[in-house]
Amino acid sequence: MVATVRLNDELEELLNSISKRFHKKKSDVIREAIRFYAQDLQKNQKTRLQKAMSKTMKEDYKVYKELEDGLSDGL
Fold first, then answer.
1. Which pLDDT does position 71 carry in this prediction?
2. Does residue 49 belong to any structural domain of this protein?
3. pTM of the model
């Protein structure tokens, strides 16, 4: 697939700088940036999911503990 990317002057300078510094083609730098971005999104999504699961488990435990305490009181 061929894609066209429009960059403002600042991004163009940054792309040129990175390309020269690492002796890579601009297209290679862009591909690596997309991969990095996708991996970062996936990592953030996984982290958010783990936090949500942890919060849910804590809340579920509170409900369980309240029920258990109620049962031990003879209710």
1. 78
2. yes
3. 0.61
